[in-house]
Amino acid sequence: MSDTIRHEVGIPVPQQARTSEAESPRLISYVLPVYNEAEGIKHFHTELTDAVATRPEFDYEFIYVNDGSADGSMRILQDIAKNDSRVRVVDFARNFGHQIAITAGLDYAAGEAVIVMDTDLQDPPRVSLQMIDAWLAGAEVVQARRRTRRDTPFKRATAHTYYRLLRSCSDVDIPVDTGDFRLLNRRAAEELRTFRERSRFIRGMVASMGFNQQELLFDRDERVAGETKYPMRKMLRLAADGVTGFSTAPLKLITRMGFATLALALLGIIYSVTLRLFFPEVTVSGWTMLMVVMLFLGGLQMLSLGVIGSYIGRIYSEVQQRPLYIVRDVIRHDEA
Ligand code: UDP
Ligand code: MG
C-alpha cells in the first residue's frame, strides 16, 4: 500500500522501509517543519536529540522540511545534517505553508511511529517521549492537547473560541485545543498520506480517520526564539480551511435563511394584500404589487442559493477524494 502511494507522488521508498529484520530497533520518525527558524533551530535540535538519547532502545530519523525559509535556516540545517546521520532535510522551492510542510515530511517518513512537532520548542521534546509510551501501550494516534499555552491573550482567546465553534458545527469530532503535535503509528500515517486535498487542515483529517486516538495533556511553552510564523492572514486561512473542509454549517445556514426569508415574505404578502383589500385608502397605488413581487423573489432567490449550495457541497466532497473507508486490519480464520 505505502509503496503504491509513494510511487504516485513520485517519492523514492526510503531504505528503512524495505528492511524489516526483527532484531533491528524500531524506527521512530520525527517530522519537523521549519520556516525562518534560524535563531532557534540549532538549540531545538540539541534539545530534541538530548531527549531521545534517554530512550536508546529505538532508532530515530529527523526529517526537517525547510518550507522556503529566507533567513539562512537552510544553511544551519545542512550543518545539522552533516553532524548527525539521522537527519534528513527536505528543502522546498518556496514557502508552501505549515500544513503542506508536514504533509511532505510524512511522505518521507519511514518509521513505525511518526511524530509531528513544531521546531520552536513550543512543543516540548519530552512530551514526545510520553507519546511514544502511549503508543507502546497500544494507542494508534496520540494527540497532544494544550492544558495551558503561553501565547498572547489575543491568540489564546481566538484559538479557544475557534476550536469550540468548529467542533460544534463540524461533522467530525475534532478535538479542542489540539494543534499538529501528534504521534501516528505506521497504519495511521499511511492512511493520512492518501489524503491529497489542497486546502489542508490536518488535525481534521486525522480526527476523521478514526483509529484508537488518545489525548495527552501538556503545557505549551513559549517560543524560544523569533516570532510566530503564523501572521493573522495565515491563521485566518487555516481557520477557514478547517470550517470549509469539515463542516457544511455555512451551507445549511443559507438554506435555513432561504426558508426564513420565504416565510417572512409570505407574511409580508398577506399583510400588503390585506391592506389593499380592506384599507384601500392607506395604500399607495402600485405598492401592493411591488411588495408581493419583491418579497417573493427575495425569498425564492435565497432558497435557490441554498439548493445550489448543497450541490456544490457534494461536488466539493467528491473532488476531495478522501478515502471512502479506512480498514485497520483484516483478520482471517487461520490468523485469528
Ligand atoms: N511553519 C512552516 N511554514 C509556515 C509557517 C510555519 O513550516 O509557513 C512552521 C514553523 O517553523 C514552526 C511551525 O510551523 O515550526 C509552527 O509555526 P509557529 O510556531 O510560527 O506557529 P504558532 O506556534 O505561533 O501557532
Ligand atoms: Mg510556535
UniProtKB/TrEMBL annotation:
<dbReference type="GO" id="GO:0016757">
    <property type="term" value="F:glycosyltransferase activity"/>
</dbReference>
<comment type="similarity">
    <text>Belongs to the glycosyltransferase 2 family.</text>
</comment>
<keyword id="KW-1133">Transmembrane helix</keyword>
<dbReference type="InterPro" id="IPR001173">
    <property type="entry name" value="Glyco_trans_2-like"/>
</dbReference>
<dbReference type="Pfam" id="PF00535">
    <property type="entry name" value="Glycos_transf_2"/>
</dbReference>
<feature type="domain" description="Glycosyltransferase 2-like">
    <location>
        <begin position="29"/>
        <end position="192"/>
    </location>
</feature>
<keyword id="KW-0812">Transmembrane</keyword>
<feature type="transmembrane region" description="Helical">
    <location>
        <begin position="285"/>
        <end position="312"/>
    </location>
</feature>
<keyword id="KW-0472">Membrane</keyword>
<keyword id="KW-0808">Transferase</keyword>
<feature type="transmembrane region" description="Helical">
    <location>
        <begin position="259"/>
        <end position="279"/>
    </location>
</feature>
<dbReference type="InterPro" id="IPR050256">
    <property type="entry name" value="Glycosyltransferase_2"/>
</dbReference>
<dbReference type="InterPro" id="IPR029044">
    <property type="entry name" value="Nucleotide-diphossugar_trans"/>
</dbReference>
<protein>
    <submittedName>
        <fullName>Glycosyltransferase</fullName>
        <ecNumber>2.4.-.-</ecNumber>
    </submittedName>
</protein>
<keyword id="KW-0328">Glycosyltransferase</keyword>
